[in-house]
């Protein structure tokens, strides 16, 4: 007899778990946490990464894009992996992130490997996530939109104090996205 759906829980994502467990990912994640320790707004820790992943997945389902769940989550979890490098050297985080994401994805154990086309898609989405491109692949468009929609700018203390550098067109200024 099949188990009831409400008792099954979500399907496991071993490839995404392998990204999280990657020594390189963990190094960059810890570097970023230290660099953003006193930042009052727009931190790039796990809550943000998971918010982006969940919004991206919802948009994917609503629009019928057919993107694999682990590919969607991989792009979201990795999209800011270059942020610490940007803070340290000034290299744009989408450029550093694409390079680091490729190294992480290509370094995963064989049992958790993404196909080369999936690696390329994730890396292209990371490279393009800072500016909306109507000609980008669906993963890139959704990552851009999810990244912006994941922020509650309308309730941010930096927004109230005009300390945010984002232009209004990029801000999420309402609950509905």
Automatic annotation (TrEMBL):
Source species: Enorma phocaeensis
Which N-terminal residues, if any, form the signal peptide? Answer: none
Task: Please give the InterPro entries that the UniProt record associates with this protein.
Answer: HD/PDEase_dom, HD_domain, HDIG_dom
**NCBIfam families of this UniProt entry?**
HDIG (TIGR00277)
The UniProt record lists the HD domain at 45-152
The highest taxon in the source lineage is Bacteria
Gene3D superfamilies the record matches:
Hypothetical protein af1432
Q: Name one Pfam family in it.
A: HD
Record protein name field: HD domain-containing protein
């Amino acid at each position: 007899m099949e188990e009831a759906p409400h008792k099954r829980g979500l399907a496991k994502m071993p490839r995404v778990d392998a990204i999280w467990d990657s020594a390189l990912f963990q190094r960059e994640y810890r570097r970023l946490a230290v660099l953003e320790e006193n930042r009052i707004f727009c931190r790039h820790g796990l809550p943000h990464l998971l918010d982006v992943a969940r919004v991206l997945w919802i948009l994917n389902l609503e629009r019928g894009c057919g993107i694999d769940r682990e590919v969607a989550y991989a792009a979201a979890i990795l999209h800011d992996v270059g942020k610490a490098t940007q803070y340290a050297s000034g290299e744009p985080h989408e450029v550093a992130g694409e390079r680091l994401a490729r190294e992480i994805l290509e370094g995963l154990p064989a049992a958790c490997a993404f196909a080369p086309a999936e690696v390329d898609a994730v890396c292209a989405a990371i490279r393009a996530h800072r500016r909306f491109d109507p000609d980008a692949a669906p993963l890139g468009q959704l990552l851009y939109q999810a990244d912006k929609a994941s922020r509650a700018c309308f309730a941010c203390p930096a927004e109230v104090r005009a300390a945010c550098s984002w232009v209004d067109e990029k801000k999420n200024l309402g609950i509905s996205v």
